């Protein structure tokens, strides 16, 4: 198939492109190369066909050579640019929409950029797809749409705790209590049918993306698979940026000879999933989206199935790197949630996807693998 990958020069997008090419798909990339993600242009691990690099020395508007001539076609363009998107959709069968501003950000000054990149960009893409009659979309979603994960109270069963208060966090009370009785809660795996409860601007923008895709699907008869990524890590993560994931921040610290700084008490539970497994989930979805329910969004969690705490992840990285040991600081960010781990059984059962990189193996490799800009 002819596949457009928006954001295809990014950390996850470039891994998706490599997998698509390996499976024989023809790939066109549309990427704005925004400085927050690409301070030095496209990454060194740019997708290649054979031994010939597809990384442009000076990114042109359209990559030299005819479209789909056995290599990756690259276009510099922003998904908020109507004409750039219209041109990029020419001859395309499936769109794999990875372009987004990611991470918790710095402060509310980032809100316009999140909404512009993630929501306006998605709206421009969807309207262009509707005009061209394109009906297959794979959307890069996120686990942040859930807010806190699934919790169970011994007395009240499944409960949804509210946002943690600054007073509690300042006093070191990091675990959310039962909203009904105040008792401690047991965290569990969150499924795709859980209520959406975004807790920060980035999360709100990712919920809006799914809602926009749903409106587009109903109006156009389109088909959407939304892949809700959990904590993705692996080679090529951006280095030293507040928009990178915590795994990259820890890895960057170790490369500088510094101890990874672990916020709260390190007991936050996450599902760390390798970027190669996320790329495989995308290629699986590209193949399956034609059979997805018409006029609707079908969401799938993409996680490893191995919940670990942030402290465990930092310790595994530090041990594999040869130190120094992590430093638990007690610091916190108000927009963070305590526990969010995936139930990815729907993706396994319905589409046959399986994660292939175990946590211990992935962390050992990641401790030595290059970061973007490193």
From TrEMBL:
Which Pfam families does the record cross-reference, listed alphabetically? Epimerase
InterPro entries (UniProt xref): Epimerase_deHydtase (IPR001509), NAD(P)-bd_dom_sf (IPR036291)
- Give the coiled coil ranges: none
Q: Which Gene3D superfamilies match?
A: NAD(P)-binding Rossmann-like Domain (3.40.50.720)
NAD-dependent epimerase/dehydratase domain mapped to chain residues: 3-150, 192-303
Residues covered by region (Disordered) = 40-66
Q: Which PANTHER family match?
A: DTDP-D-GLUCOSE 4,6-DEHYDRATASE-RELATED (PTHR43000)
Query: Its family?
Result: Belongs to the NAD(P)-dependent epimerase/dehydratase family.
Q: What name does the UniProt record give this protein?
A: NAD-dependent epimerase/dehydratase family protein
Q: Which organism is it from?
A: Actinocorallia aurantiaca
Upper taxonomic lineage: Bacteria, Bacillati, Actinomycetota, Actinomycetes, Streptosporangiales
């Amino acid at each position: 198939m002819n596949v457009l990958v928006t954001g295809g020069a990014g950390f996850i997008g470039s891994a998706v492109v490599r997998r698509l090419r390996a499976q024989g798909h023809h790939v066109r990339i549309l990427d704005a190369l925004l400085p927050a993600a690409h301070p030095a242009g496209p990454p060194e691990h740019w997708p290649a066909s054979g031994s010939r690099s597809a990384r442009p020395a000076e990114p042109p508007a359209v990559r030299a050579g005819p479209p789909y001539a056995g290599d990756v076609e690259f276009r510099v363009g922003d998904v908020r640019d109507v004409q750039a998107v219209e041109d990029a959709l020419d001859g395309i069968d499936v769109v794999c929409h990875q372009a987004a501003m990611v991470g918790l950000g710095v402060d509310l000054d980032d809100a316009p950029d999140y909404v512009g990149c993630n929501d306006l960009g998605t709206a421009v893409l969807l309207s262009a797809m509707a005009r061209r009659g394109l009906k297959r979309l794979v959307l890069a979603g996120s686990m942040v749409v859930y807010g806190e994960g699934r919790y169970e109270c011994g007395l009240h069963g499944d409960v949804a705790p509210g946002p943690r208060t600054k007073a509690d966090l300042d006093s070191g009370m990091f675990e959310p209590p039962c909203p009904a009785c105040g008792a401690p809660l047991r965290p569990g795996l969150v499924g795709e049918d859980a209520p959406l409860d975004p807790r920060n601007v980035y999360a709100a923008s990712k919920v809006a993306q799914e809602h926009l895709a749903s409106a587009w699907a109903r109006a156009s008869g389109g088909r959407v698979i939304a892949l809700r990524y959990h904590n993705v890590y692996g080679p090529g993560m951006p280095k030293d940026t507040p928009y990178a994931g915590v795994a990259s921040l820890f890895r960057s610290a170790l490369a500088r000879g510094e101890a990874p700084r672990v916020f709260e008490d390190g007991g936050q539970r996450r599902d760390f999933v390798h970027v190669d497994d996320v790329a495989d989930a995308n290629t699986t979805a590209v193949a399956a989206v034609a059979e997805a329910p018409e006029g609707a969004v079908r969401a799938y969690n993409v996680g490893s199935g191995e919940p670990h705490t942030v402290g465990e992840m930092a310790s595994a990285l530090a041990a594999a790197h040869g130190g120094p040991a992590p430093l638990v600081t007690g610091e916190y960010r108000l927009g963070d949630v305590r526990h969010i781990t995936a139930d990815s059984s729907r993706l396994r059962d319905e589409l046959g996807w399986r994660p292939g990189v175990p946590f211990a193996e992935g962390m050992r490799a990641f401790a030595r693998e290059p970061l973007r800009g490193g």
